[in-house]
């Protein structure tokens, strides 16, 4: 095993997850980027390398226990010790309670919460041996209140927040910083641009979240001295109602 610093981003998508991966790579971390289809990570890895950083793509279904165990083992053995862990899987799928199916509800919970447990457990086991590490979970407005037509997503995000709280209380005395970030508002993505053009038009007024600025907060959480650890922060545009 090398002595390289490693940051692991589960759910390294095209917006927030990718920005977080780039932020840590810029600080000299070997950034292990994970999503279910690893081939889709090629543009992100290329951006990281063009900026002078190092990124490695991994394809993994984080809902599958054996796959997660193998992923963490491979990274720890072949890349280096994981110093930073970020769980950023979304699963924001709306549906009326009258139309929701048990299959889709369960799948959203698997993606939004269960995968956070599996990946977090395996990383925590390694960090415990070293007595240090940072673990950050990405939450949403749904982490603290359930909106109409978002029962499944709200249930998963509420559960993820509770998981992070429990882990923080257990792991902090072991030297591991666990944090939860509530991202409250629309993010500058192609999805928002296409589906919510009126909201996207607020970008010029700083009315939607910039993924790079979200990522800056993740870096700040990691850099906090242990006498002043934050468990939870919430990020929203200045004009967002809450």
Q: Please write the CATH class name.
A: Alpha Beta
Helix/strand-derived category reads alpha/beta
- H/I helix tally: 8
Mean pLDDT: 96
Largest sheet: 7 strands, parallel
Order of neighbouring strands in the sheet with most strands: 3-2-1-4-5-6-7
- The CATH superfamily is identified as NAD(P)-binding Rossmann-like Domain
In helices, the fraction of residues equals 40-55%
Q: What is the β-strand count?
A: 7
Provide the CATH topology: Rossmann fold
**Count of distinct structural domains:** 1
The CATH architecture name reads 3-Layer(aba) Sandwich
Computed Rg: 17 Å
Distance between the termini: 47 Å
Written overview of the protein:
By secondary structure, this protein is an alpha/beta fold. It has one domain: NAD(P)-binding Rossmann-like Domain (Rossmann fold, 3-Layer(aba) Sandwich). The chain is 44% helix and 18% strand. Helix 2 links the parallel strand 2 and strand 3. Helix 3 runs parallel beside helix 4 and helix 4 packs parallel to helix 5. The radius of gyration is 17 Å and the shape is globular. The N and C termini lie far apart (47 Å).
